[in-house]
Amino acid sequence: MEVNWRQIHAARNSYAALSAACGQEGFSLRPVDQPAPDVTCYSLNSLNEPYYRDEIAGADCITIVGGPHATACPREVAEYADYVIVGEGEFTLPRLLTQLESGGNGKIPGVATAYFSPPVTSTVRLDAYPAFSEKQGYVEITRGCPFACGYCQTPQIFGHCMRHRSIDAIARYANRYEHARFVSPNAFAYGSDGIHPRWEKIEALFKQLRNQIFFGTFPSEVRPEFVCAESLSLVNRYCTNTKLHFGVQSGSDPVLERLHRGHTADAGIRAVELCNEYSITPVVDFIVGFPFETDEDQLATVDLIEWVARYGKVHVHRFMPLPGTPLAGTTARSLLPETEKICGKLAVSGKLTGSWNDPAIRFFKTPFK
Ligand code: SF4
Fold first, then answer.
1. Distance between terminal CA atoms of the chain?
2. Which residues form the pocket of ligand 1, taking CB atoms under 6 Å from any ligand atom?
3. For the domain with range 126-362, which CATH number is right: 1.10.10.10, 3.80.30.20, 3.20.20.370, 3.20.20.105?
4. Which residue's CA is the closest to the ligand 1 atom numbered 6?
5. How far apart are CA 311 and CA 324, in angstroms?
6. CA 211 to ligand 1 centroid distance, Å
7. Which of 41, 188, 229, 275: disulfide with 222, CB 3.0–4.6 Å?
8. How far is the CA of 350 from the centre of ligand 1 (A)?
């Protein structure tokens, strides 16, 4: 059975991880730019999903769709795809392919179709699967998040309990290349429950890496309350990156509280100041346009954006209600003229990037591709 992987820029790390997992079961995922027989697999997020929907519906082959959008809206996706993978794909996708190859109907836990939807019964242990194989990817060191930020799909897909790849397994993959970059919802939470940091675990990991380490920066980030003397000393001692990426999201404490962010705006300010003390450039995420954001809340965020931009860089995104999140179905509020003006001015000066006026740019270089 020929199995293809529809190449989509936003899903390139999923391709690396899933082709390695499928390879273990004897399935090679051939990269394609259009659906092809016998089977074509897709991983879609909620922004690119509309772009691929017609292609999948008209495909002349078996189609399997996973990814954040499929997990959030399996019934909707099953209206046009043959099979929908709900949740983590490493275990379920090879199992489904094996079943289909032997003539089965694909009715296994975690696979939805227009006719059945048995619930997910498995959780992936990261060490049980390669981080990647021939196709290089970033090493995913942690999955799951104990927080429940109102706009975020991560805990809905991966759960609230953090699962970590072991230090030996991380080193085995990371040391293959000159640069080691990692995927994690909060890199400084490595080895911990996600609330109480375990700096000794991070240092033990760093000691096993023999290449240039990029930690707490693209493609992962950290939480502001984890930015402290211990974490910054570790970065300065072991890592190559001179930037640290973290989300503050709002300059308004009432907004942060309603989002269940679990930190205050002051925690963000303190993190920026500490970065400055340790000669690390902070790169800070903000979101504007939350549905419950008052004018005062938005102006507080804009003030904080301007202040952060003096010390580092800011990524500002327009709020987008993602399916499966607590804020699904809500509508972004409008931006104030001051917000547009200041974000525009900072963007022109090279201090600000992001999609404060077009959420689609958040996930794509070109919208919907
Ligand atoms: S935004 Fe970050 S901290 Fe909040 S739920 Fe998502 S992954 Fe967790």
1. 28
2. 145, 147-149, 152, 154-155, 185, 223
3. 3.80.30.20
4. 152
5. 35
6. 28
7. 188
8. 27
Query: In angstroms, rounded to a whole number, what is the distance separating the alpha carbons of residues 132 and 136?
Result: 6
Per-position pLDDT tens, the chain of length 369: 999 999 999 999 999 999 999 999 999 999 999 999 999 999 999 999 999 999 999 999 999 999 999 999 999 999 999 999 999 999 999 999 999 999 999 999 999 999 999 999 999 999 999 999 888 889 999 999 999 999 999 999 999 999 999 999 999 999 999 999 999 999 999 999 999 999 999 999 999 999 999 999 999 999 999 999 999 999 999 999 999 999 999 999 999 999 999 999 999 999 999 999 999 999 999 999 999 999 999 999 999 999 999 999 999 999 999 999 999 999 999 999 999 999 999 999 999 999 887 766 554 444 333
How many angstroms is it from 148 CA to the middle of ligand 1? 6
Ligand 1 centroid to residue 340 C-alpha, Å: 26
What DSSP assignment string belongs to 162-176?
-EE--HHHHHHHHTT
Edge to edge, what strands does the sheet with 111-112 contain? 29-32, 3-6, 39-43, 62-66, 83-85, 111-112
Distance between CA 323 and CA 77 in Å, rounded? Answer: 12
Where exactly are the structural domains of the chain? 3-112, 126-362
CATH of 3-112 among 2.60.40.290, 3.40.50.280, 3.10.410.10, 3.50.50.60: 3.40.50.280
Position in ligand 1 atom list of the atom nearest CA 153: 6
Query: How remote is the CA of residue 113 from the centroid of ligand 1, in Å?
Result: 29
Give the position, in ligand 1's atom list, of the atom nearest the Cα of 146.
Answer: 8
User: Ligand 1 centroid to 256 CA: how many Å?
Assistant: 12
Q: Phi, psi (5° rounding) for residue 265?
A: -65, -35
Which residue's CA is the closest to the ligand 1 atom numbered 7? 185
Closest CA to 1 of 74, 97, 65, 82: 97
Tell me if 183 sits within 8 A of 220, measured CB to CB.
Answer: yes
